[in-house]
Amino acid sequence: MTLPLREEKVFKDPVHKYIYVQDRTIWDLINTKEFQRLRRIHQLGTCFLTFHGAEHSRFSHSLGVYEITRKIISQFERNRYDDWPSEERLLCLCASLLHDVGHGPFSHSIEKTFGTHHEDWSCRIVLGDTEVNRVLREVSPTFPQQVAEVIAKTYHKEIVVSLVSSQLDADRMDYLLRDAYFTGVNYGMFDLERILRVIRPFQGHIVLKESGMHAVEDYLMSRYQMYWQVYFHPVTRSAEIVLHKIFQRAKQLHEEGYTFSFMLPPLPSLFRQTLTVQEYHMLDEALMQTALMQWSYERDPVLSDLCSRFLNRCLLKYVMLERIETPLIDQLREMMRSFGIDPEYYLEIDFPSDLSYDVYRPGEHDEKLPILLLDNKDTLTEISRKSEIVRSISGIHMGKYHLYFPEELLDQCRSQSISPALCKLLRLE
Amino acid sequence: MTLPLREEKVFKDPVHKYIYVQDRTIWDLINTKEFQRLRRIHQLGTCFLTFHGAEHSRFSHSLGVYEITRKIISQFERNRYDDWPSEERLLCLCASLLHDVGHGPFSHSIEKTFGTHHEDWSCRIVLGDTEVNRVLREVSPTFPQQVAEVIAKTYHKEIVVSLVSSQLDADRMDYLLRDAYFTGVNYGMFDLERILRVIRPFQGHIVLKESGMHAVEDYLMSRYQMYWQVYFHPVTRSAEIVLHKIFQRAKQLHEEGYTFSFMLPPLPSLFRQTLTVQEYHMLDEALMQTALMQWSYERDPVLSDLCSRFLNRCLLKYVMLERIETPLIDQLREMMRSFGIDPEYYLEIDFPSDLSYDVYRPGEHDEKLPILLLDNKDTLTEISRKSEIVRSISGIHMGKYHLYFPEELLDQCRSQSISPALCKLLRLE
Amino acid sequence: MTLPLREEKVFKDPVHKYIYVQDRTIWDLINTKEFQRLRRIHQLGTCFLTFHGAEHSRFSHSLGVYEITRKIISQFERNRYDDWPSEERLLCLCASLLHDVGHGPFSHSIEKTFGTHHEDWSCRIVLGDTEVNRVLREVSPTFPQQVAEVIAKTYHKEIVVSLVSSQLDADRMDYLLRDAYFTGVNYGMFDLERILRVIRPFQGHIVLKESGMHAVEDYLMSRYQMYWQVYFHPVTRSAEIVLHKIFQRAKQLHEEGYTFSFMLPPLPSLFRQTLTVQEYHMLDEALMQTALMQWSYERDPVLSDLCSRFLNRCLLKYVMLERIETPLIDQLREMMRSFGIDPEYYLEIDFPSDLSYDVYRPGEHDEKLPILLLDNKDTLTEISRKSEIVRSISGIHMGKYHLYFPEELLDQCRSQSISPALCKLLRLE
Amino acid sequence: MTLPLREEKVFKDPVHKYIYVQDRTIWDLINTKEFQRLRRIHQLGTCFLTFHGAEHSRFSHSLGVYEITRKIISQFERNRYDDWPSEERLLCLCASLLHDVGHGPFSHSIEKTFGTHHEDWSCRIVLGDTEVNRVLREVSPTFPQQVAEVIAKTYHKEIVVSLVSSQLDADRMDYLLRDAYFTGVNYGMFDLERILRVIRPFQGHIVLKESGMHAVEDYLMSRYQMYWQVYFHPVTRSAEIVLHKIFQRAKQLHEEGYTFSFMLPPLPSLFRQTLTVQEYHMLDEALMQTALMQWSYERDPVLSDLCSRFLNRCLLKYVMLERIETPLIDQLREMMRSFGIDPEYYLEIDFPSDLSYDVYRPGEHDEKLPILLLDNKDTLTEISRKSEIVRSISGIHMGKYHLYFPEELLDQCRSQSISPALCKLLRLE
Question: Which residues cross the membrane (chains A, B, C, D) (predicted)?
């Protein structure tokens, strides 16, 4: 069971002005140590190395997702929509607040190296021996399980899942606005109030009145721009790559039995992939940045060099490639080795759309629920069938290959005679 | 000697939209590891525990101070003012950029416990064996010394010092705008463009045209509001106090020869107050937060409890006091001891104006240069002689005593019979 | 009786984002011709000649006042405050919307010359044979009378009057924000959301929780700055003076039996002060500006010159005076006459605080209800007893005398030998 | 010849913060009566009836176009680009400021009815016996002619014309930002600073560095949204149609020798299409609104009804049509006549793309210069060849037919038995 707070609490928030808390359960969840840990995880990972304002944490984003969900539900209640299952209010709010609670430090690189997955960890935290679990169990014994199902998108009511996780969910709406605000890149701004006005529960779905179509177009256009201007920015990618190489190297050294001067719990468990929920709690970005700092003094030259690069922002350079010519890349690897630079750790080919490229592609089978428009005659239509602009954005394939390598490679190339093909590849004239 | 960059570089900044870099020296300074380290120091210390948006770093603030200084000088140059010593341009820019380079993690608490001082460290970094020093020496052999003098406010030209450090300097102007932006508290907004339009070099001073007086009033009013709404917020103060107690306890344990399970370089040097510039570089907030996390598992119960409190935001409660009654406080201390709570670490009386309360008080002898207005007849007048509103703000003494203690103390009090005077003090009915 | 609208209607508003209409009565009132007429009356009279963005109308301000009142009441209802007389909701909303419906073109100058009063006209429109009256009567036969009483501040419940008209009413809150937005002068911005959060009905008054005191200080400071930066700007005053002289001259000519080439209904009734409600409806700024344009071709040289000055923004110059020396002013008048310039129409001494200077002065007997703070113990205190900053602003007397005259006077003075005292007065060297 | 002002002047502007005037010629132009007249012409014609904030004038827009041009040129000068013809600075500034000086009241409707053209009038004002002409002639005897050529797009240097009039000119950039600001519709916001940073003079063209392509995409997307959300809004179109019908009726009556109760100069000249420059000056929106008010009391029922509709915002209703079925429309006209409603004045079919639909369509032969991107190898490419998003927007054909008619028609239809086809057409069930 849950109780209303005796007096509404607020958090001052630069994006939504205020975040309103009316339920004791929400207040208690925010005060758990697992939720407070999100203050020590950057919302945008390494992006602050490209956009210095992007230093905000998953803590403030999680509050923002909660607040947008609260606003949507409060609109549903104000309008007394029959199709809204009002008994699911608290479940939606809790799942919104907690959907990112399992995020680790620099998630992309860590997950890629060690095979963890943040959604699994969110569920483990919700279900495990944690403060979060204790607060949720006060609502009802099965409540933690329900929250975990919403996060895992297996909950039996689509309408609940889609508030937290769909093509137009509270998560995306908050991060676009928030990331735009903190980076200073105003492409991410869209008319949230307009969308909140036209969103409706309808026959088990979350839909939008057709009159709000232009607001949705604008939102999808913002998303498109933010992906290409911010999230896939090649400097951010470069930092991700360096970080991934660091973890790869450390893991390799660990497997080879190398003795680290600096090794703190729970890093060994991370390397062995045996982390418990309690150990996972200690794994924040403060720890990872401390490890990078200490390892920048390790005697292994690759590990120490890569860590210094990350800390001091001497990242890898890049050139754009139209396509990959494997023999040429092999030749480049060979040359790097001849210079004493290990291509395993100093060369990477990156293709943004390998990532979870979040364009709206209604045609493709996607885990994300599509955006549905509701017209005056109560007919539902998937938005791209009505909007030319959405069709246009959906059809765009933009990714280009990027080749990353250390700037020093160019100095070495300049002092040697290298093949014209390699010169051209590396943009050396 | 310095060179212009072949092409102007920009940083996207949410406060100033863009930050423009035109000089190679500035570009190189930003890329030093000492300057990059500022990314790992919060601009507002523990304030993010009160205003969750306040997660911005001294890195972005330092760029902002540089940018405002650049804008002021560029206005001076555009108007070709005779009283502007144009040869000092690069010195002003470098000092603006570097004035905070010596800030450590959670400066207030650390400085209070270990007697370090961030301005001294800024000078040591500028003058020591650092990348910053190497970049500055490329300008001229004496340039690092000049920069250090501006930071230490001993440089022989007041006009240079006052751009970086006065009652209306680039530092204050940036932090008010930036802290307002990131906290979401809009009291800190003032009309920067208007001030930039009326600022002038005049007979060795930085002055403002009298026609801009209202903009300055507005700036001082913003400053007043930010101090009382944000900087002296009792929750932020509570976090500062907990942090100070942690360092005090750790220092005490270290002096007693206690063996820490977690102890990394350069913490021992910090305790012994023998930090070198190289060791200071490692002392960032990632390290301090990692120490707090690891120490939350130490066997010393006071240290471990205080660290958990900070990390999980279970800070100390507070009550406001009109005045301090020493016998009553002694009685409270006694009672706490009887409950097994050490008042040395769990009780604190705080008075904001003990801090460097930054109200504009032209009458008092202050290290800060006052604000001068220039009228049509080229007469200079200190602003409070012209503005009633400034006189009003200057005269306000607002500080109240706050008594901080753990919430658990109240539970224990409730289960015992305690004196009515103590009940009243702790707001127990 | 009133009905809710089948579907909420919205107006896009740049200040409040959206204005929400939920009642048929409000919707119908907005669509009356008397309310639509407000589109043809500038909110800030002649201020657009100083701040070119200030071209907004009383129509948008009136919607804004309504919206703030609606937000306040909706907060009261959400919190189910016992002290809120919920049956007064519609009355408050209608009075908010209509409080300015009687404003005429360039109210200050017209009212000064012809002795009309906009509040009286608001009541006449509410009570007369108008579309507004017909809509109100559909609520109940006595409803128009109630609305008129609220506008006239004679309604028997203070709480209703004070929402629309007090030191912190919806009217002032909207105009500060709106005038700041449209002029671009950001001094008028204050934290409306914070004030909306702490406002309460309490024992027949509208009060503010003490915790919101700083937000009120900020609001009063904004008001102070807007008055001196915008509302009393000497160029705006100059335009008011020219306009007043035009009406004075036209009235004089009319009384002398002069035949105007241009004279349209209802101008003769205005001159004779016999306007009916139907005639008043035609009296908008389009008509007045057309009269000014046509009169700029009248054969009376004074009328034609003054009209050209207003239309083409060749206003009167001004100098600031510490005090009025009557003999010197008489001497100036004499000299003007000798130049053939009639001081009756070309000289004016202005003192801003002659105007309804809207500083917050709780001590003085004022028609405006004061601002009351409510503390934790349910005690009410007038704000200036708690806030030093409010005491400071309240005590400031800033007005200076301004002497207005045509620039051409200076040219004539320069070609003659005039007394040193007059030279000094007019700032001629 | 022109002189710099002794001291830079500024106008406070809500969109650009400040507008800076440095040249005496610009200052004098702003103070001419022809330029001041623009204060009495709405920037967005009848749009204020849809978006009540849209009450801004062509005066503020014209200042904004000047300011953006000034910023672009000042960037060119700061970077000392060889390809910039610096001798054309003043010409560009004057043409920017004056390009709209010939706009009449409610231009679209007036131009449609009376065949005037605002660009022709701008040239007539620049070249005729006007204050504007006198100020320009002080620069040089041929200067007015040059300004007129730039406005008419016949000036021999494309680079000069394209600053004022191209697909990415100062005019469009200002109006998108300004109209977005005043309507409150934030779709019009784009990153002006970014565009100002990447714009370049290059071999006689104004081009953009390819790195700024995303900012241009965003600008074009904003334009697309503003057209469909604001400029082509059916309520605004409805007001335009009513206005057009009013002028059509008045012209018809005039031709039939009808005696108007209200008829002022220069309306007869407008009807006869013999306006002189001096008469055109009197033709502002104050006059037109006064005419509408007076004509609302004319004895011709059609004229009087249409004028009341416009003033009191009882516009025509509309339904959307996929296509035009001529026989059905004829049937509707017949029915209207049988009800005594003249379809000539009360029925209209509107198709937005009949208007100057300002989508970016590089393929079509257009008077507007296209947007060119400059890559690292100094190659120019038209933007739609590089940007998929621009190609998408360019290809969209969105216009739908709208049928406008009075709401009263529906009441009459309801009381009669009308054909099912007409019922369906008018959405009567």
Answer: none
